[in-house]
Give the backbone structure.
Amino acid sequence: MDNRVYLLRVDSYHPDALDEAVNMFWGPLGLDSLLQGKQVLIKPNLVAGASPDKAVCTHPEVIGALIRQLQGSKVSVGDSPGLGSTENVAAIAGILEVCQREGATLVDFANPVVTETPDGAVCRIIQLAEAVLRADAVISAAKLKTHALTRYTGAVKNLFGCMPGKLKPEMHLRMEEIDKFASFLVDVYLTVSPVLSVVDGIVAMEGNGPRNGEPRKVGVLLAGRDGVAVDAVAASVIGLDPFSVPTILNAHQRGVGCGDLRSIEIIGTSLSEARIRGFKTVPGSSSALKNLPPFLKSLLRDQLTAKPVVNVQSCIGCTVCRELCPTKAITMDKAAVISSHDCIRCYCCQELCPEGAITLARRGLGRLFS
Ligand code: SF4
Ligand code: SF4
């Protein structure tokens, strides 16, 4: 695996700045010869409809710069948002307009197709969007953000969106423990096998990510053939130990890419120059419940893991969280009410609440294990 990661200082989303940055890695990574004449699918992060300044989705101009590089290929752009239709979300995020301007087709990930994952650790088969499997090559074009469940989301986690809509909450139900879920995300990454991973960290998201955090200018664009290495460098830029991110640790331990910074060749800006201070990271899900018998798990869950809590002042009663919750742990009174007993701590509700009305609360022991 190519262990080079381009860590490029990019201060704005101006198309000229982005073209210059993409040119820096495109040739050296051999992408012209790999992708010429091919059907290429770009997979941005389109988790939910939000304007580019909110830093929820991959910035449309990053997608625009990638499409421009792919002249001579047939380019499509697609995702399966956690909330809303692909077209609506892409329109709000500015990506639909960029696709129309640059000549790419926006595709919906509605149709699931069963495919084998021969090297999967937790799955032997997996359902991916037909558009993903039809493409000759996939580019993961992620946003650098904090994530309540996985600490950080970037190139690897971005590909979870290759599973059509409703299948995603189901996977949370089947992969309740964070280590297992991370292993599953790495299975998805292996199966999709992106030819290039790009992480938009020009303006990242800190705090209550991946949807309701605050934008934070970091000023970097990252790219490489090894998405795990790209994630390791991106995580380090925001002050995280890469191996504290469950997807990076799992992938590295399985030999799926390299998460060890000592073995990654960083080209462009040095890590010490790019690293920013005081980025508000999150602890992510705790694996402290792993290996406990079921009765102890439910007894200690509140003590050892962060619990989603509804701010009744902010809740508008839209029922989005109730519809998404894989265990049906949420009912509606005037505001959403979460049954702690039924909640498996997947944090889908925190991720997708349009009002940011759900935050995570940790008790004393939970803080120790986070
Ligand atoms: S908590 Fe959020 S998602 Fe749930 S009903 Fe309230 S506003 Fe809607
Ligand atoms: S209440 Fe929220 S965190 Fe708990 S299972 Fe439902 S969606 Fe997941």
Notes: The chain has two domains: 4-274, 294-369. The first strand starts at residue 4 and ends at 9.
